[in-house]
Specification:
The protein has 171 residues and is an alpha/beta fold. Helices cover 35% and strands 16% of the residues. The chain is built from 7 helices and 7 strands; from the N terminus they run βαββαβαβαβααβα. It is globular, with a radius of gyration of 18 Å.
Length: 171
């Protein structure tokens, strides 16, 4: 499909470089367009001051996200009663993540195992002190900037995410 297209639009230069290598395509064919956020939904909002320091992750439970590292971090910080993690989502690694959290007896993590609407998600972001991006160690994790990063930045929230080739293009 890329060979027949006049122009191919991808989200990062890292993705473009991958396509050029993998499919032996000319770099001139590609254009990078950052994904961005829907600013009708994701914009700075006032939120009441939470009692605790809220750390938010949302997304599908896939290897790209590296949720096990978030759980490990929560365990390290569990003695600090002022830090609370909220993890929203579901997916292929959901059972494994729940098992890790259960086996570690983690008390400072709230797992919301379902997807929620963008408008509700914006409310969770607004209540958060910091939002989390991705931490996976897959090839894809190195090539993408997930929507969650754009959504949180659009709401002027600090974001912690893995240092990847792709994220270095933006931050």
């Amino acid at each position: 499909a890329c060979r027949f297209a006049d122009i191919v639009i991808l989200d990062t230069n890292a993705h473009i470089e991958y396509f050029c290598r993998e499919f032996k395509l000319s770099r001139n064919k590609f254009r990078r367009v950052f994904i961005g956020a829907d600013d009708d939904v994701f914009f700075p909002k006032e939120s009441s001051s939470p009692d605790k320091f809220n750390v938010l992750f949302f997304g599908s439970f896939i290897p790209l996200h590296g949720i096990e590292y978030i759980i490990e971090t929560a365990k390290i910080l569990e003695n600090n009663k002022d830090i609370h993690f909220v993890i929203i989502g579901t997916g292929q690694e959901e059972e494994r993540i729940q098992r890790i959290a259960f086996e570690q007896k983690i008390k400072n993590v709230e797992l919301i195992n379902r997807f929620i609407s963008e408008r509700d998600l914006a409310k969770y972001i607004a209540k958060s002190n910091v939002c989390l991006g991705i931490f996976g160690k897959t090839q894809k994790a190195d090539m993408v900037i997930p929507c969650k990063v754009y959504d949180c930045i659009a709401m002027k929230k600090p974001v912690i995410t893995a240092r990847t080739t792709a994220i270095s293009e933006l931050l």
